Amino acid sequence: MPRVCVFDVNETLLDLAALDPHFERAFGDSSVRRTWFAQMLQLALVSTVTGAYADFGACQAAALEMVAARQGVDVSEGDRREILDGMRRLPPHPEVRESLERLREAGFRLATLTNSTLEVAEAQLNHAGIRDLFEQALSADTVRRLKPAAEPYRMAAERLGVEIAQVRLIAAHAWDIAGALRAGCAAAFVARPGMILDPLVDRPDVVGADLRQVTDRIVQVEAA
Hints:
Blueprint: E1 4-7, H1 20-27, H2 32-50, H3 56-71, H4 77-86, H5 96-105, E2 109-114, H6 118-128, E3 136-139, H7 150-160, E4 167-171, H8 174-183, E5 186-190, E6 206-208, H9 211-223
Parallel strand pairs: 1-2, 1-4, 2-3, 4-5, 5-6
Helix pairs in contact: 1-4, 2-3, 5-9, 7-8
């Protein structure tokens, strides 16, 4: 059974709601943050499917430009920088550190796998105060193919020195769960508010409302 837990970072570990005040100021509506993130994911997926690689930061900037044009808003350079640079300064969800510490104490190896560049990922994890809990921080940018393409998950297994079936990907995104399962990983879904599993994809054996519940279930499953 998997003893290597590999975590998505944005929304899974870190709380994007910290960007809401910037979107409220720039757009007059904090909910535009969700529209922006969805647009960014669409651009990243198009990039991956069509084989024209664009890194995650470029997708974030392009998505902000598209959303501003659609809303008819002229986003100032200051607000643009606050939003894009704010991705490096996101806080962890409240239960994250204690959950990660429990997994480590239970004997699990921990790593992260994000679509962000490695430089951004390291900045995020250090700012959130949780970098010390992971043996490696891995980026899909290394293989120039963004999740949910299979290559990043395979790269993670290779870098960690295990078979891909020994990796459990933990994420709050249905598309990340789908990519991991179809690449041969186990998976665990963090069903944060508004996050729903894809009914066209097999359900992972671990599902919880937050990382604390997911951790409880992972420990139970692996002990069985």
